[in-house]
């Protein structure tokens, strides 16, 4: 009787122990960086996690520079960036044992935007440079009303700022009087709320609250960005430490899949690598 009871209790304890073991925790991938790439990653990431319940994504913005810095410091596995890595950033990473590997996931057109009530329809690269350098201060100088121009820019940690500096401003610099914003969304809000303002945003952030401006007589479209006829076209990237492997490779492969991640690129308003 005692032996039978002991066996029963042992079996009961063993069964309880099995059910007490917690489910295996999901593997977490920390992703941070560009607010331009952020909508793509959020859209694709949601579907990716649904298809891969054993992998969890932690996604945040903060700017391309901050994303690459986090990768170099081992604080994330994936850095989102709307510009290429700088040589100084690569050297910094190398010194810490980090080999930043770049993967393009989308194409973007950086677009100047103004308030919908502003009659200006086109600006040249030279006019944009003059506006942001502080040499052109009135809208009437570029075909608009006799009103002061309020320039809205991005903060210096932004890849969008770096792209604007390289493709529009060089060799000049953006004037200190420009109002700095931390994200594309903040630029949209600032321009939508001020009829004298001009800003620049990623293609995926265009909406009816702002009016896009042609540049050099060209309209920003998927076709003009892919052909590089649009003068402020660029690729959007993710960076990893070394070639993607394991769960990170699964994510990168998902982002590049025409029926999955590239579909999310199009759905968020950006341009898939294939243009379709």
Task: Please provide a brief summary of the model.
The protein is built from ten helices and eleven strands. The protein has about 280 residues and is α/β, with parallel strands linked by helices.
General description of the model:
This protein is α/β, with parallel strands linked by helices and 276 residues long. It has 2 domains: 27-107 and 235-267, Periplasmic binding protein-like II (D-Maltodextrin-Binding Protein, domain 2, 3-Layer(aba) Sandwich), CATH 3.40.190.10; 108-226, Periplasmic binding protein-like II (D-Maltodextrin-Binding Protein, domain 2), CATH 3.40.190.10. The chain is 37% helix and 22% strand. The chain is built from 10 helices and 11 strands. It has helices at 2-20, 38-51, 64-72, 87-95, 125-133, 159-169, 184-192, 222-226, 246-256, 261-267; strands spanning 27-33, 55-60, 78-81, 100-114, 122-123, 150-154, 179-181, 197-202, 211-212, 214-215, 233-241. The strands form 2 sheets. Strands 1, 2, 3, 4, 6, 7, 8, 9 and 11 form a 9-stranded mixed β-sheet that branches. Helix 6 (159-169) links the parallel strand 6 and strand 7 (179-181). Helix 3 packs parallel to helix 4. The longest helix is centred in the N-terminal third of the chain and has 19 residues, at 2-20. The radius of gyration is 24 Å and the shape is globular. It starts with a helix and ends in a 9-residue tail after the last helix. The model is unreliable at 1-23 (pLDDT under 50).
């Amino acid at each position: 009787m005692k032996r039978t009871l002991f066996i029963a209790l042992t079996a009961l304890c063993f069964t309880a122990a099995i059910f007490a073991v917690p489910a295996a925790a999901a593997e977490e991938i920390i992703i941070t960086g560009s607010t331009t790439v952020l909508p793509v990653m959020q859209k694709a990431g949601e579907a990716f996690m649904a298809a891969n319940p054993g992998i969890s994504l932690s996604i945040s913005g903060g700017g391309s520079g901050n994303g690459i810095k986090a990768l170099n410091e081992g604080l994330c596995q994936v850095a989102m960036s709307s510009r290429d890595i700088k040589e100084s950033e690569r050297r910094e990473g190398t010194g810490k044992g980090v080999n930043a590997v770049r993967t393009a996931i989308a194409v973007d057109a950086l677009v100047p935007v103004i308030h919908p009530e502003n009659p200006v329809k086109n600006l040249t690269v030279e006019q944009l440079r003059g506006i942001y350098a502080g040499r052109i201060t009135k809208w009437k100088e570029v075909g608009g009303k006799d009103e002061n121009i309020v320039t809205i820019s991005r903060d210096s940690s932004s890849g969008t700022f770096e792209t604007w500096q390289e493709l529009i401003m060089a060799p000049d610099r953006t004037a200190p009087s420009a109002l700095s914003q931390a994200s594309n969304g903040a630029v949209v809000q600032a321009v939508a709320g001020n009829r004298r303002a001009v800003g620049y945003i990623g293609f995926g952030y265009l909406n009816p609250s702002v009016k896009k401006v042609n540049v050099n007589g060209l309209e920003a479209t998927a076709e003009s960005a892919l052909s590089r006829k649009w003068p402020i076209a660029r690729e959007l990237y993710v960076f990893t430490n070394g070639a993607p492997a394991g769960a990170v490779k699964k994510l990168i492969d998902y982002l590049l899949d025409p029926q999955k991640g590239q579909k999310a690129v199009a759905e968020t308003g950006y341009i898939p690598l294939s243009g379709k």
